[in-house]
Amino acid sequence: MTETFDRRRHPVRADLAAIDYEGRATASCFAEGEVFQVIADQLPIRPEPRPDRPIDTEALSGEWVTVYEQTPEGWAWGQLDTDGYVGWFSSDDLGPVKPATHRVRALRTYRYPVADLKFPPLGLLSIGSLVTVIGETETRGLAYALLSDGSAVVAKHLVPLDAVEDDWVAVAEELIGTPYRWGGRSSLGLDCSALVQLAAQTGGHGLPRDSDMQEAEAGEAVPHDDPATLKRGDLLFWKGHVGIVAGENRLLHANGYTMTVAYEPLDKAIDRIAATEWGAITKARRLPEL
Q: What is the full DSSP assignment across 193-209?
Protein backbone atom coordinates (compact mmCIF):
# COMPACT_ATOMS: atom_id res chain seq x y z
CA MET A 1 0.00 0.00 0.00
CA THR A 2 1.33 3.45 -0.94
CA GLU A 3 1.78 5.77 2.01
CA THR A 4 -0.02 9.12 1.78
CA PHE A 5 1.95 12.22 2.71
CA ASP A 6 0.50 15.58 3.71
CA ARG A 7 2.35 18.15 1.57
CA ARG A 8 2.34 20.58 4.53
CA ARG A 9 4.31 18.25 6.77
CA HIS A 10 6.33 15.95 4.54
CA PRO A 11 9.00 17.06 2.04
CA VAL A 12 7.78 14.64 -0.60
CA ARG A 13 6.96 15.40 -4.25
CA ALA A 14 6.74 13.13 -7.27
CA ASP A 15 10.02 14.50 -8.61
CA LEU A 16 11.88 15.09 -5.32
CA ALA A 17 11.80 14.01 -1.70
CA ALA A 18 13.98 14.23 1.38
CA ILE A 19 16.49 11.40 1.72
CA ASP A 20 14.74 10.24 4.92
CA TYR A 21 11.78 9.15 2.77
CA GLU A 22 13.74 6.82 0.54
CA GLY A 23 12.00 3.46 0.73
CA ARG A 24 8.77 5.06 1.95
CA ALA A 25 7.91 7.41 -0.89
CA THR A 26 8.05 7.19 -4.66
CA ALA A 27 10.07 10.06 -6.12
CA SER A 28 12.39 10.61 -9.07
CA CYS A 29 15.24 11.54 -6.74
CA PHE A 30 16.04 12.09 -3.09
CA ALA A 31 18.05 14.92 -1.55
CA GLU A 32 20.00 15.31 1.68
CA GLY A 33 18.95 18.91 2.21
CA GLU A 34 20.97 21.88 3.49
CA VAL A 35 20.15 23.86 6.62
CA PHE A 36 19.84 27.65 6.44
CA GLN A 37 18.64 30.39 8.74
CA VAL A 38 15.90 32.91 7.94
CA ILE A 39 17.41 36.41 7.74
CA ALA A 40 14.23 38.27 6.74
CA ASP A 41 11.91 39.67 9.41
CA GLN A 42 9.23 37.27 8.17
CA LEU A 43 9.46 34.76 5.35
CA PRO A 44 6.23 33.81 3.53
CA ILE A 45 5.87 30.09 2.79
CA ARG A 46 3.67 29.17 -0.17
CA PRO A 47 2.30 25.93 -1.64
CA GLU A 48 3.78 26.78 -5.05
CA PRO A 49 6.74 28.89 -6.25
CA ARG A 50 4.47 31.75 -7.31
CA PRO A 51 4.24 35.18 -5.64
CA ASP A 52 0.55 35.48 -6.54
CA ARG A 53 -0.42 32.43 -4.47
CA PRO A 54 -1.80 32.86 -0.93
CA ILE A 55 0.68 32.03 1.79
CA ASP A 56 0.34 28.90 3.92
CA THR A 57 2.38 30.26 6.82
CA GLU A 58 5.44 32.33 7.66
CA ALA A 59 8.88 31.58 9.04
CA LEU A 60 10.23 34.10 11.53
CA SER A 61 13.65 35.67 11.63
CA GLY A 62 16.28 33.34 13.04
CA GLU A 63 14.34 30.12 12.48
CA TRP A 64 16.01 27.30 10.58
CA VAL A 65 14.86 25.69 7.35
CA THR A 66 16.14 22.60 5.58
CA VAL A 67 16.27 23.28 1.84
CA TYR A 68 15.98 20.44 -0.68
CA GLU A 69 15.83 22.48 -3.88
CA GLN A 70 16.74 25.96 -5.08
CA THR A 71 15.65 27.28 -8.46
CA PRO A 72 17.35 29.80 -10.78
CA GLU A 73 14.34 32.08 -10.22
CA GLY A 74 15.22 32.48 -6.54
CA TRP A 75 12.81 30.00 -4.98
CA ALA A 76 13.67 27.40 -2.37
CA TRP A 77 11.63 24.36 -1.37
CA GLY A 78 12.11 23.01 2.10
CA GLN A 79 10.92 22.43 5.64
CA LEU A 80 10.73 24.78 8.63
CA ASP A 81 12.49 23.35 11.67
CA THR A 82 10.15 24.92 14.24
CA ASP A 83 6.96 23.09 13.29
CA GLY A 84 7.92 20.98 10.28
CA TYR A 85 5.95 23.00 7.73
CA VAL A 86 6.92 22.38 4.10
CA GLY A 87 6.64 24.82 1.21
CA TRP A 88 8.23 27.31 -1.14
CA PHE A 89 9.98 30.52 -0.06
CA SER A 90 12.53 33.06 -1.26
CA SER A 91 16.12 31.80 -1.23
CA ASP A 92 17.29 35.43 -1.04
CA ASP A 93 16.03 35.56 2.56
CA LEU A 94 18.25 32.72 3.78
CA GLY A 95 21.67 32.86 5.35
CA PRO A 96 24.19 30.74 7.27
CA VAL A 97 23.09 29.04 10.47
CA LYS A 98 23.88 30.69 13.80
CA PRO A 99 22.62 28.91 16.93
CA ALA A 100 20.12 31.13 18.73
CA THR A 101 20.51 32.19 22.36
CA HIS A 102 17.30 34.20 22.86
CA ARG A 103 13.88 34.75 21.40
CA VAL A 104 11.82 37.90 21.08
CA ARG A 105 9.20 38.15 23.84
CA ALA A 106 7.91 41.65 23.17
CA LEU A 107 5.17 41.68 20.55
CA ARG A 108 7.70 43.28 18.24
CA THR A 109 11.07 44.98 18.53
CA TYR A 110 13.20 47.10 16.22
CA ARG A 111 16.62 45.91 15.12
CA TYR A 112 19.03 48.85 15.00
CA PRO A 113 22.37 49.28 13.17
CA VAL A 114 23.91 50.42 16.46
CA ALA A 115 22.82 50.38 20.08
CA ASP A 116 20.85 53.60 19.85
CA LEU A 117 17.10 53.99 19.37
CA LYS A 118 17.64 57.28 17.53
CA PHE A 119 19.06 55.49 14.49
CA PRO A 120 16.79 54.32 11.64
CA PRO A 121 15.87 50.66 12.29
CA LEU A 122 17.06 47.89 10.01
CA GLY A 123 13.96 45.78 10.61
CA LEU A 124 11.12 44.85 12.94
CA LEU A 125 11.22 41.44 14.63
CA SER A 126 8.04 39.72 15.82
CA ILE A 127 7.42 37.78 19.00
CA GLY A 128 8.87 34.30 18.53
CA SER A 129 11.78 35.43 16.37
CA LEU A 130 15.17 33.96 17.29
CA VAL A 131 18.39 35.91 17.79
CA THR A 132 22.00 35.22 18.72
CA VAL A 133 23.23 37.57 21.44
CA ILE A 134 27.01 38.08 21.61
CA GLY A 135 27.15 40.99 24.02
CA GLU A 136 25.34 43.80 25.78
CA THR A 137 25.82 47.54 26.09
CA GLU A 138 23.98 50.55 27.44
CA THR A 139 23.09 53.83 25.77
CA ARG A 140 21.53 56.65 27.79
CA GLY A 141 20.44 54.18 30.47
CA LEU A 142 18.81 51.68 28.11
CA ALA A 143 20.34 48.21 27.77
CA TYR A 144 20.79 46.75 24.30
CA ALA A 145 21.58 43.21 23.24
CA LEU A 146 24.28 43.06 20.56
CA LEU A 147 23.48 40.45 17.93
CA SER A 148 25.75 38.26 15.83
CA ASP A 149 24.80 40.08 12.62
CA GLY A 150 26.13 43.37 14.01
CA SER A 151 22.74 44.85 14.87
CA ALA A 152 21.24 45.65 18.27
CA VAL A 153 17.84 45.26 19.94
CA VAL A 154 16.46 46.45 23.25
CA ALA A 155 17.59 43.79 25.73
CA LYS A 156 14.40 43.70 27.80
CA HIS A 157 12.47 42.64 24.69
CA LEU A 158 14.28 39.29 24.70
CA VAL A 159 14.11 36.19 26.86
CA PRO A 160 16.37 33.10 27.00
CA LEU A 161 15.25 30.19 24.84
CA ASP A 162 14.16 28.19 27.89
CA ALA A 163 12.00 30.96 29.39
CA VAL A 164 8.42 29.83 30.13
CA GLU A 165 5.41 32.06 30.80
CA ASP A 166 3.16 31.09 33.71
CA ASP A 167 0.04 32.18 31.79
CA TRP A 168 0.45 31.80 28.05
CA VAL A 169 -3.15 32.92 27.47
CA ALA A 170 -2.11 36.34 28.78
CA VAL A 171 0.39 36.48 25.91
CA ALA A 172 -2.42 35.78 23.44
CA GLU A 173 -4.38 38.59 25.09
CA GLU A 174 -1.50 40.98 24.43
CA LEU A 175 -2.18 40.40 20.73
CA ILE A 176 -5.75 41.72 20.90
CA GLY A 177 -6.30 44.12 18.01
CA THR A 178 -3.67 42.48 15.80
CA PRO A 179 -5.02 42.30 12.23
CA TYR A 180 -6.27 38.95 10.97
CA ARG A 181 -4.12 37.66 8.13
CA TRP A 182 -4.60 34.32 6.44
CA GLY A 183 -1.35 32.39 6.82
CA GLY A 184 0.21 35.14 8.93
CA ARG A 185 2.36 34.05 11.85
CA SER A 186 3.66 37.29 13.31
CA SER A 187 2.44 40.10 15.55
CA LEU A 188 1.91 42.20 12.41
CA GLY A 189 -0.87 39.88 11.27
CA LEU A 190 -1.85 36.29 12.01
CA ASP A 191 -4.58 33.71 11.70
CA CYS A 192 -6.41 31.65 14.32
CA SER A 193 -3.97 28.77 14.62
CA ALA A 194 -0.91 31.04 14.56
CA LEU A 195 -2.30 32.95 17.55
CA VAL A 196 -2.57 29.66 19.42
CA GLN A 197 0.84 28.41 18.30
CA LEU A 198 2.78 31.61 19.07
CA ALA A 199 1.17 32.20 22.47
CA ALA A 200 1.38 28.56 23.56
CA GLN A 201 5.06 28.48 22.59
CA THR A 202 5.79 31.08 25.28
CA GLY A 203 4.25 28.67 27.80
CA GLY A 204 6.55 25.85 26.69
CA HIS A 205 4.11 24.12 24.35
CA GLY A 206 5.35 23.21 20.88
CA LEU A 207 2.19 22.97 18.79
CA PRO A 208 1.77 22.19 15.10
CA ARG A 209 0.85 25.02 12.75
CA ASP A 210 -2.67 24.50 11.36
CA SER A 211 -5.94 24.12 13.24
CA ASP A 212 -6.63 20.60 11.98
CA MET A 213 -3.19 19.51 13.21
CA GLN A 214 -3.76 21.16 16.58
CA GLU A 215 -7.19 19.54 16.87
CA ALA A 216 -5.62 16.13 16.37
CA GLU A 217 -2.48 16.56 18.48
CA ALA A 218 -2.56 19.42 21.00
CA GLY A 219 -2.86 18.24 24.60
CA GLU A 220 -5.77 15.95 25.41
CA ALA A 221 -9.41 16.01 24.40
CA VAL A 222 -11.93 17.24 26.99
CA PRO A 223 -15.74 17.35 26.86
CA HIS A 224 -17.23 20.45 25.27
CA ASP A 225 -20.97 19.81 25.64
CA ASP A 226 -21.17 22.13 28.66
CA PRO A 227 -19.14 25.33 28.16
CA ALA A 228 -19.24 25.93 31.93
CA THR A 229 -16.79 23.04 32.42
CA LEU A 230 -14.16 24.60 30.17
CA LYS A 231 -11.06 26.21 31.70
CA ARG A 232 -8.91 29.16 30.74
CA GLY A 233 -6.49 27.95 28.10
CA ASP A 234 -8.73 25.24 26.66
CA LEU A 235 -8.75 25.17 22.88
CA LEU A 236 -12.06 25.02 21.01
CA PHE A 237 -12.17 23.74 17.46
CA TRP A 238 -14.55 24.14 14.59
CA LYS A 239 -14.03 22.92 11.05
CA GLY A 240 -11.12 25.11 9.95
CA HIS A 241 -11.01 27.30 13.06
CA VAL A 242 -9.62 27.36 16.59
CA GLY A 243 -10.13 29.71 19.54
CA ILE A 244 -8.91 29.99 23.12
CA VAL A 245 -11.14 29.93 26.18
CA ALA A 246 -10.00 33.08 28.03
CA GLY A 247 -12.46 32.88 30.93
CA GLU A 248 -16.08 32.22 31.76
CA ASN A 249 -18.11 32.65 28.55
CA ARG A 250 -15.17 34.38 26.87
CA LEU A 251 -13.54 33.28 23.63
CA LEU A 252 -10.32 34.79 22.32
CA HIS A 253 -9.53 34.22 18.67
CA ALA A 254 -8.06 35.65 15.50
CA ASN A 255 -11.04 35.67 13.19
CA GLY A 256 -12.40 36.88 9.89
CA TYR A 257 -15.55 38.24 11.56
CA THR A 258 -13.83 41.17 13.26
CA MET A 259 -10.67 40.79 11.11
CA THR A 260 -8.64 41.07 14.31
CA VAL A 261 -7.61 39.15 17.39
CA ALA A 262 -10.61 39.79 19.63
CA TYR A 263 -12.70 38.65 22.56
CA GLU A 264 -16.19 37.36 21.85
CA PRO A 265 -18.85 36.03 24.25
CA LEU A 266 -18.51 32.27 23.89
CA ASP A 267 -22.25 31.55 23.73
CA LYS A 268 -22.75 34.14 21.01
CA ALA A 269 -19.70 32.91 19.11
CA ILE A 270 -21.02 29.33 19.20
CA ASP A 271 -24.36 30.45 17.75
CA ARG A 272 -22.78 32.74 15.17
CA ILE A 273 -20.24 30.20 13.96
CA ALA A 274 -22.88 27.44 13.87
CA ALA A 275 -24.80 29.52 11.34
CA THR A 276 -21.80 29.71 9.02
CA GLU A 277 -19.83 27.17 7.03
CA TRP A 278 -17.82 26.26 10.16
CA GLY A 279 -20.81 24.68 11.91
CA ALA A 280 -20.73 23.29 15.44
CA ILE A 281 -17.76 22.81 17.77
CA THR A 282 -15.92 19.66 16.75
CA LYS A 283 -13.56 19.23 19.72
CA ALA A 284 -12.05 20.82 22.81
CA ARG A 285 -8.50 20.15 23.94
CA ARG A 286 -6.53 21.02 27.07
CA LEU A 287 -2.78 21.56 27.14
CA PRO A 288 -0.82 19.93 29.95
CA GLU A 289 0.46 21.88 32.93
CA LEU A 290 4.22 22.22 32.77
A: HHHHHHHHHHTT----S
Q: Determine the pLDDT at residue 83.
A: 98
Domain's final residue, options 134, 160, 186:
160
Residue 26 domain boundaries: 17-95
Are 241 and 194 in contact by the 8 Å Cβ rule? The answer is no
Whether the per-residue pLDDT at 1 is higher than 60: the answer is no
Phi-psi region of 82 (alpha: psi -120 to 50; beta: other; left: phi over 0): alpha
Are residues 124 and 85 located together in one domain of the fold? no
Give domain status of residue 190, yes or no. Answer: yes
238 located within any domain? yes
Asked if residue 106 has pLDDT above 60, the reply is: yes
Residue 1 lies in a domain: no
Backbone angles phi, psi at 234, to 5 degrees: -65, 145
Domain final residue, candidates 129, 160, 191: 160
Give the whole-angstrom CA distance, residue 128 versus residue 239.
Answer: 27
47-63 pLDDT, tens per residue?
999 999 999 999 999 99
SS3 268: helix
Instruction: Confirm if 87 and 113 have CB atoms less than 8 A apart.
Output: no
Q: What is the per-residue pLDDT for 244? A: 98
Tens digit of each residue's pLDDT (9 = 90 or more) over 212-224? 999 999 999 999 9
d(CA 163, CA 159): 6
> Are 172 and 245 in the same domain?
yes
| CATH code of the domain covering residue 248 | 3.90.1720.10
pLDDT given for residue 2 in this prediction: 62
> How much is the pTM?
0.97
Residue 6 maps to a domain: no
